[in-house]
Amino acid sequence: MEFSSKLIEKAVNEMSQLPGIGKRTALRLVLHLLKQPKEQTGFLSQALVAMREDIKYCNSCHNISDSVLCEICANQSRNHQIICIVEDIRDVMAIENTGQFRGIYHVLGGKISPIDGVGPSQLNITTLVDKVKSGSVNEIIFALSSTMEGDTTNFYIYKQIADCEIIMSTIARGISVGDELEYADEVTLGRSILQRVPFEKSFKNN
């Protein structure tokens, strides 16, 4: 792709680094921004810089936040004795959109995947185990994607807390095996939360 401006070329190259954005789409976006008032582009760049520099991660659940505690963990009307374990921030958003869950979350930051070089020590598992062993949790809901990596991560966490006297459940397999949680429709995901099953039964039947 030939460019008449090195500045446009650099902007397109940077934009095309984003997931799902090819060079042609990046060019279309850059040219759109070029047509906008300068202050509009300034608002966008300021928002991105502020997000990158000022974003925090909740000290309790590792969700993205503007402060040391995210809005969910700081909400006293939520049931803090029920923790839903998810892979990443997008899964929190997906479940929240169902309006069916009133507990709190724990964001692992990924799944155990030896092929990708991701082990338990690289995930937010230790803080979860500490919460459970502190005695402040009544139920853990495993809500990772129904993939081999998700099931491996679920089972690893289960073994870490198997001796604790808490309820362990997993979302119902209304979510198809191999599907990513963020792509599930809200009705299916909501029903999976409400119809969760004991975790032990989920892997004994597989």
TrEMBL record:
<dbReference type="InterPro" id="IPR015967">
    <property type="entry name" value="Rcmb_RecR_Znf"/>
</dbReference>
<dbReference type="Pfam" id="PF13662">
    <property type="entry name" value="Toprim_4"/>
</dbReference>
<keyword id="KW-0233">DNA recombination</keyword>
<feature type="domain" description="Toprim">
    <location>
        <begin position="81"/>
        <end position="176"/>
    </location>
</feature>
<keyword id="KW-0227">DNA damage</keyword>
<dbReference type="InterPro" id="IPR023627">
    <property type="entry name" value="Rcmb_RecR"/>
</dbReference>
<protein>
    <recommendedName>
        <fullName>Recombination protein RecR</fullName>
    </recommendedName>
</protein>
<dbReference type="Pfam" id="PF21176">
    <property type="entry name" value="RecR_HhH"/>
</dbReference>
<feature type="zinc finger region" description="C4-type">
    <location>
        <begin position="58"/>
        <end position="73"/>
    </location>
</feature>
<dbReference type="InterPro" id="IPR034137">
    <property type="entry name" value="TOPRIM_RecR"/>
</dbReference>
<keyword id="KW-0234">DNA repair</keyword>
<dbReference type="InterPro" id="IPR000093">
    <property type="entry name" value="DNA_Rcmb_RecR"/>
</dbReference>
<comment type="function">
    <text>May play a role in DNA repair. It seems to be involved in an RecBC-independent recombinational process of DNA repair. It may act with RecF and RecO.</text>
</comment>
<comment type="similarity">
    <text>Belongs to the RecR family.</text>
</comment>
<dbReference type="Pfam" id="PF02132">
    <property type="entry name" value="RecR_ZnF"/>
</dbReference>
<dbReference type="Pfam" id="PF21175">
    <property type="entry name" value="RecR_C"/>
</dbReference>
<keyword id="KW-0479">Metal-binding</keyword>
<keyword id="KW-0862">Zinc</keyword>
<keyword id="KW-0863">Zinc-finger</keyword>
<dbReference type="InterPro" id="IPR006171">
    <property type="entry name" value="TOPRIM_dom"/>
</dbReference>
